[in-house]
Automatic annotation (TrEMBL):
Sections of the chain in a coiled coil: none
Domain EAL: start-end pairs: 20-273
Entry protein name: EAL domain-containing protein
Species name: Sphingomonas xanthus
Length: 288
């Protein structure tokens, strides 16, 4: 269809695609060479208990900055790492960096680490991560591995891998729940400890009663399953108050803290002044 369209839109589309392809080419070149860790950095975002106004955990979010390439968000370069078979190496580098830079457990908090379904499927990879974590002086109980449902290539294998690590004390969160591939028929089969409600749910929480109904239902699901629930993507005080009214306690989002340096996140965790962690929830200004 793009071919038949005349005019500048075709050109813009072509340029963008071209740039994406070039970026991908460059990324593929660097990501598969030894020393790629140099281009990897991590941003850290607090997870907040809104009842006590305390930070209870920190999520590590990967960034890619290689020369001659625009800084890439996690979603883009993780997909490339997966497609070129470098995922295990990249996850190892991310986890090694995170436990070194951000010892959240030292302040009693949990470190949340996103992993790919490909990692979960390979026993040796998970064992390697576990060893890296324990050798950094962290007890498994202070780690939460975040997985997404899209990543569950083989549910049986994922479940057995999660059980195995769970027995050692590691915990698992189901990330982005409610988006894309989420399925009620699957969630109860997964041995998870935490459910993270996708930010897309929150966008309309202030204006749309049906959106609130959906969030409330997922929170109730988490309660019934006896797992913790983190509401992601909270960008305003109003959103946080609506989520709290629906029973949410753990939240994460720009409103509380943006992804930042390990130092900032660790300061938020230890309750030091100067962190941009909002103190408590604001008063709700809207009716209903
Ligand atoms: P995620 O784990 O669900 O992370 C949340 C994403 O939302 C992050 O984007 C974060 O920066 C962003 N975010 C946080 N608060 C807000 C908010 O209030 N509003 C909005 N609009 N966005 C917010 P990011 O860092 O670009 O990561 C995107 C995804 O890439 C992550 O989604 C995760 O699935 C994946 N990812 C990130 N780091 C890693 C990693 O180290 N390994 C793997 N395998 N995947 C990762
Ligand atoms: Mg996550
Ligand atoms: Mg998420
Ligand atoms: Mg996400």
């Amino acid at each position: 269809a793009a071919k038949q369209q005349a005019g500048p839109s075709v050109v813009v589309y072509g340029e963008r695609l071209d740039r994406q392809l070039r970026n991908r080419q460059k990324l593929l070149g660097t990501i598969s060479r030894p020393g790629f860790e140099e281009y990897l950095s991590l941003a850290y975002q607090p997870i907040v208990d809104t009842k006590s106004s305390a930070c209870v955990g920190i999520e590590a979010l990967a960034r890619w900055n290689s020369p001659g390439l625009e800084s890439l968000g996690a979603a883009e370069f993780i997909a490339t790492a997966e497609s070129c078979g470098q995922m295990h190496e990249v996850t190892r580098a991310i986890v090694a960096k995170a436990v070194k830079e951000c010892p959240a457990w030292e302040s009693g908090g949990s470190l949340f680490l996103n992993i790919s379904g490909r990692d979960l499927m390979v026993e040796e990879s998970m064992d390697f991560l576990a060893t890296t974590i324990v050798e950094a002086g962290c007890m498994p109980e202070h780690i939460v591995f975040e997985i997404t449902e899209t990543a569950l290539i083989n549910v049986e294998a994922a479940v057995s891998s999660m059980r195995r690590l769970g027995e050692r004390g590691f915990r698992f969160a189901l990330d982005d729940f409610g988006s894309g591939q989420s399925s009620l028929s699957r969630v109860h089969r997964l041995p998870i400890d935490v459910l993270k409600i996708d930010g897309a749910f929150i966008e309309n929480i202030v204006d749309d009663p049906r959106c609130r109904a959906a969030v409330g239902t997922v929170l109730e699901l988490a309660r019934q399953m006896q797992v913790d629930c983190v509401v992601e993507g909270i960008e305003s005080g109003e959103q946080s108050v609506h989520a709290a009214r629906l029973g949410a306690r753990l939240m994460q989002g720009y409103y509380f803290a943006r992804p930042s340096s390990a130092l900032d996140a660790l300061q938020a965790l230890s309750g030091m002044p100067g962190s941009n962690l909002a103190a408590g929830l604001p008063q709700l200004r809207v009716a209903g």
